Amino acid sequence: MQGQTIIVTGGGSGLGRAICLGLAEAGAQVAIIEINQESAQTVIDEITAKGGKAFSVIGDITTRDSAKALVDAAIERAGRIHGLINCAGVYPRRPILEITDADWDFSFSVNVRGLYNVSVAAIAHMQGQGGGRIVNIASIDALKAHPKNAHYAAMKAAVVSLTKSMGLAVAPDNILINGVAPAGIATEKARAAGFLPELAAQTALGRAAEPEDVADVVIFLVSEKNRYMVGETVAISGGYFIA
């Protein structure tokens, strides 16, 4: 991926961090869109310490204008972008009969509207440069019942749907949009939440995913090695559905 620039939203921690590190190792320059400047800088320092290239653009993706400004700023600095990975997200847990209006609004604003806003801004540039790749981070929760976290599951189901519809709309422009639907990932936040042992017991492999397990698939999808996948969402679950 030498000479390519890939935007990663939410690249300052967890899966986003692993994706950024993997992209840099593959030779790409990484443009991190983050709301948390400190976490973004930590990842940048990790990348540059190993000889890689990375920079950040700090701001909020939940409004159309701010998301466009962030993407435009990244492109102004890099010259052009070759791919986008929509990894920014929030994971609010609440029993299904206790979800508030504020819970719905917050989850939608980041997990769906934010993803859409950044994608629209990036697509406008990709259409003028002959194509590109976009990868959306959905969740295995989009594909199964989740009464303890139904609003999150609904938002990720919307991501799966957007991946199909946007993928179909821009495939003629050589813009390939795909997604991944991971099961539990062993990030620091997930470990702190305490549900990984339960999830691991439900998988065929008997463990949660390491961030790199998912990042490697994402990096393939955003690379030029992906030539014939569009509108797909790939489940990465350790055999969750066959266990």
TrEMBL record:
GO molecular function terms listed in the Swiss-Prot or TrEMBL record: oxidoreductase activity, acting on the CH-OH group of donors, NAD or NADP as acceptor
Domain Ketoreductase: 4-146
Superkingdom in the source lineage: Bacteria
Gene Ontology BP annotations: fatty acid elongation
InterPro entries, sorted: KR_dom, NAD(P)-bd_dom_sf, SDR_fam
Family note: Belongs to the short-chain dehydrogenases/reductases (SDR) family.
Entry protein name: Oxidoreductase
Organism: Ancylobacter novellus (Thiobacillus novellus)
Taxonomic lineage of the native organism: Bacteria, Pseudomonadati, Pseudomonadota, Alphaproteobacteria, Hyphomicrobiales
